[in-house]
What we know:
Blueprint: E1 4-8, H1 12-24, E2 28-33, H2 36-46, E3 50-54, H3 62-70, E4 77-82, H4 90-96, E5 100-103, H5 112-117
Parallel strand pairs: 1-2, 1-3, 3-4, 4-5
Amino acid sequence: MTRSILVVDDDPAFRELARRLVTAAGLTVVGEAATATEALAVARELRPDAALVDIDLPDRNGVALAHELTALPFHPRVVLTSADAEAAPQQAVERSGASAFVYKGDLADGTLRQLLGSD
């Protein structure tokens, strides 16, 4: 079964990179969003299995967004990411309902399928 992924990041270049990494991991990007507000609207419409969410969004912190996404009726898996390796302490990740936090520099190491694609 192909898992559907929503990519949330305000940087279009990173969204493109994430799309390539997610696709290379055997998953399908079904939508993209540049803000938390847009992400919630897209998630409600497309009902992705998982979301890759940047912590530093222009309208809301990604940790808060993770909490909102995981509370949706279809409970998408959320993986937080940031260019700052210290952006999300483990306790904040756990409280948000996210499955994990991954430093953007580590995304190319093959962990995406495991983190986003697991049931």
